Amino acid sequence: MARVVVVGAGVIGLTSALALEEAGHDVQVIAAAKGNSTTSAAAGAIWYPFKVGPPEKASVWAGTTLRWLTRLAKQSPEAGVDIVERTELAQDDRTPWWAPATPGLRKVESTDSKPLPNGARFGWKFEAPRCDPPVFLPWLESQLHCPIEIRRVLSLGALIAETNAGAVINCTGLGARTLTGDRELQAIYGQTVITAPGRIDLAHCLGDERDESRMFYAIPRRAEVVLGGCAELCPDDRPTTTTRAMTDAILSRAAAMGLEPGPVLRESAGLRPYRPSVRLERDPDEDRIIHNYGHGGSGFTLCRGCAEDVAALL
Ligand SMILES: Cc1cc2nc3c(=O)[nH]c(=O)nc-3n(C[C@H](O)[C@H](O)[C@H](O)COP(=O)(O)OP(=O)(O)OC[C@H]3O[C@@H](n4cnc5c(N)ncnc54)[C@H](O)[C@@H]3O)c2cc1C
Q1: What pLDDT does residue 236 have?
Q2: CA of 40 to the centre of ligand 1 (A)
Q3: What spacing in Å lies between the alpha carbon of 11 and ligand 1's midpoint?
Q4: CATH label of the domain that carries residue 236
């Protein structure tokens, strides 16, 4: 089995490293930062395909990840994954592209006796695994044999020469732009507001992306709720600071949904590493490099499916 270096310790790097170890490889993760300093820590982080492509592949990766996360929720509660019921409001009753990945998906229609929130006529209900990044990321790390080495990699080619690794897996998210010069990779800014539960049901998640300029989600965790959000294309050096205006907008959208969250605990923001297609392939010029980046708003939704494909490629 190969000695493999995984670059990146967000959800994509850590799940890739775990799948590779399970396949019997000798794995070392190297990352400029881990835990709270990654985009992954800023995520909601519920299973839901959003801002990701291409649909046919994303659907398969998402289906594999859904099964894996569901198993973790049942077998390893210490991983910080739980199953919640999600209601996704919809403009019309067309079946969503991610339906093939979602067993038990059912359409709901607004009625006078059971109206859907915010004037929606339709919605989709399904069981969705939700990760809690401050618990899940350290849990993934704890499953690995070698401690993560913290340092910035300046060149993937030089890293191969230096480590003599049989393979280097590039899981650097937005950092891949500098490492590979990939101009298709773009940053999409997102902000969340984390509140005490208040009167929000912690077994239920609500999402509404009918109008992307006013998108909304309420993702419950074990003792708090993540309210979001926004998806603004931006330069990848945009600071991940939060704004008061967006916090106020998110809280007023929550009120319009009929939700009554508790006090604001903190705010958070991050840059989604978006690409029209996730890049999961061997590098055309150096076949010891495998790329796995560009998961947009769906890193937690696709992580295991992509990790298994990386292991299969190796
Ligand atoms: C507000 C918000 C809400 C979100 N909600 C959800 C959700 O509900 N569900 C979902 O599935 N997804 C969600 N996402 C998207 C998800 O967070 C991302 O898709 C995911 O975090 C990408 O993971 P990653 O590991 O590729 O990148 P990152 O988490 O950014 O990790 C990249 C890693 O690479 C390292 N790195 C980068 N460059 C270098 C270098 N040169 N040398 C060494 N190391 C390097 C970094 O230090 C880091 O360790 C959300 C994102 C945001 C911002």
Answers
A1: 84
A2: 4
A3: 7
A4: 3.40.50.720
